[in-house]
Amino acid sequence: MRMPFPEIDVVALDCGRVRVRPKNIRGTGTPMLWWTLTARTWSPWLPVHAFLVSHPRGTLLFDTGQSPASLAPGYYPRGLVGWVFRRQAEFRVEVEHGLTAQLAAAGSSIAEVDLVAVSHLHQDHAGNVALFGETPVLLSRAEHSLLSEKDPSLHGVLVDHVGAANYRPVDFPPSADSEIAMFEGAHDVFGDGALVLVPTPGHTSGSMSLLVRRAGAAPLLLVGDLTYDPALLEDGIVPDVGDRRAQREASRRVRELIETLPGLVVLAAHDPEAETRLASA
Fold this sequence. Notes:
This protein is of the alpha/beta class and 281 residues long. It has one domain (9-279): Ribonuclease Z/Hydroxyacylglutathione hydrolase-like (Metallo-beta-lactamase, Chain A, 4-Layer Sandwich), CATH 3.60.15.10. It has helices spanning 32-38, 79-88, 99-105, 123-126, 141-145, 159-162, 230-234, 244-260, 274-279, and strands at 9-20, 46-55, 58-62, 89-92, 115-117, 136-140, 166-170, 187-188, 195-199, 208-212, 220-222, 265-267. A seven-stranded mixed β-sheet has the order 4-1-2-3-5-6-7. The chain has a five-stranded mixed β-sheet with strand order 8-9-10-11-12. Strand 8 and strand 9 (195-199) form a beta hairpin. The protein is globular and about 55 Å long. 44% of the residues are buried. InterPro entries: MBL_superfamily_lactonases (IPR051013), Metallo-B-lactamas (IPR001279), RibonucZ/Hydroxyglut_hydro (IPR036866). Keywords: Hydrolase, Metal-binding, Zinc. Belongs to the metallo-beta-lactamase superfamily. It comes from Demequina capsici.
């Protein structure tokens, strides 16, 4: 019999602003290079969230936000790849939105984070991993393999900015936990079922999400960029970025999880309502 889940505190950190092209949010099957070339409008400015998760056995940071260094000239590659980055997204990171400042506002610090997990390696999720020195950084093995590709930037991975970390690639072995049987496997962070990483590929080949089950409060699913809005997830609408088929399958599995865990709250990295959803969970 599984022991009761512990009390777990989760805080949303506001690590900047991003605006993207509409197809980055609500896809219709348009090839990415085509809409990157032809898009003329932007989304509203959206938050860049990271999540501080306090478990009795340690403090975990899920995603690390956008680095203020990304606003400096030369951060992005030159040539066509750099043009694609700049065409697809624009960022703002004010001083108060820096990760160190956000952790301080939450009563924590870089030194007090015991473990980091990144949903994927794009710079608005892994952009601050270098701040953590020898602190272990969990990511899926498939995502970690992107760092050794001939040109990781073709996958949206800027090795110069996200490559320096104490990465600990994780696998997703089959789980006996019936509540997450819809996933091919899982990685139980502390071994008590409270914090469980599950594969949700599609946005990138190794994207993953974090399931948080806690005493006295609604369960949470931190999904990174699987969706920008849980309502789109429910409708099966995925972005025109990455592998749409894989995203639709990951979305289907998440919808099944929602049916299995009544009250589950989905928290997306760029959802303007994420903090409100968390506060009411």
